[in-house]
Amino acid sequence: MDNEPLDLGTDKSLLLVDDDEAFLKRLARAMEKRGFEVETAGSVVAGRAIATGRPPAYAVVDLRLEDGNGLDVVETLRERRPDSRIVVLTGYGAIATAVAAVKIGATDYLSKPADADDIVNALLARGDALPPPPENPMSADRVRWEHIQRVYEMCDRNVSETARRLNMHRRTLQRILAKRSPK
């Protein structure tokens, strides 16, 4: 994918909305290398302002942002530019949020960590054609570990509360948390 030029059309504008600043910068650089004209936002407010003032041809929006829900940005963008291609990214993969994202106009939905090639494939996929599967998807063990870590953080690192919400024995959870993340 690195050597072949992408067919982005005449409007190469891309809005990236994510509150993880390091991820946002890395993704912006990667997308610029692929020919996009990138504009970034770190919040729902900033993302909606750009979507209203300069609606881009493409957008990648994180679902959960510090100041609200990324779907608000998707809605604003869909109202201002119905032909925009929008991919929703999230570390909290769930069927319900995927359905909600697509219903309000997202083109696709990817779980973090998605790499730039996966995102480009999703942005440029046309019609009912699914993008090719990722070259190196996360292992099932890694997906499980990521989910446990998210719930643990949401419970303010309270092991007992996390174990209760995951319907897991507290000692089992403690052993999992003590280990390194799987590959």
Q: What does this protein look like?
A:
The chain is of the alpha/beta class. It folds into 2 domains: 13-124, Rossmann fold; 140-178, Arc Repressor Mutant, subunit A. 45% of the residues lie in helices and 16% in strands. The chain contains 8 helices and 7 strands. It has helices spanning 21-33, 44-53, 71-80, 95-103, 116-124, 140-154, 159-165, 170-178, and strands at 13-17, 37-41, 58-62, 64-65, 68-69, 85-90, 108-111. The strands form 2 sheets. The chain has a 5-stranded parallel sheet, sandwiched between helices. Strand 1 (13-17), helix 1 and strand 2 form a beta-alpha-beta unit. Helix 2 (44-53) packs parallel to helix 3. The modification 4-aspartylphosphate is found at residue 62.
What structural category characterises the helix and strand content?
alpha/beta
Write down the Rg.
Answer: 18 Å
The mean pLDDT is 83
Total beta-strand segments: 7
Query: Order of strands across the widest beta sheet?
Result: 2-1-3-6-7
- How far apart are the first and last residues' alpha carbons, in Å? 24 Å
Runs in which pLDDT lies below 50 for 5 or more consecutive residues are 1-5
Total of DSSP H or I helical runs spanning 4+ residues: 8
CATH class of the largest domain: Alpha Beta
SSE topology string: EHEHEEEHEHEHHHH
Number of domains: 2
Domain Response regulatory: 13-127
Organism: Marivivens donghaensis
Keywords: DNA-binding, Phosphoprotein, Transcription, Transcription regulation, Two-component regulatory system
InterPro entries: ActR_PrrA_rreg, Bact_response_regulator, CheY-like_superfamily, Sig_transdc_resp-reg_receiver
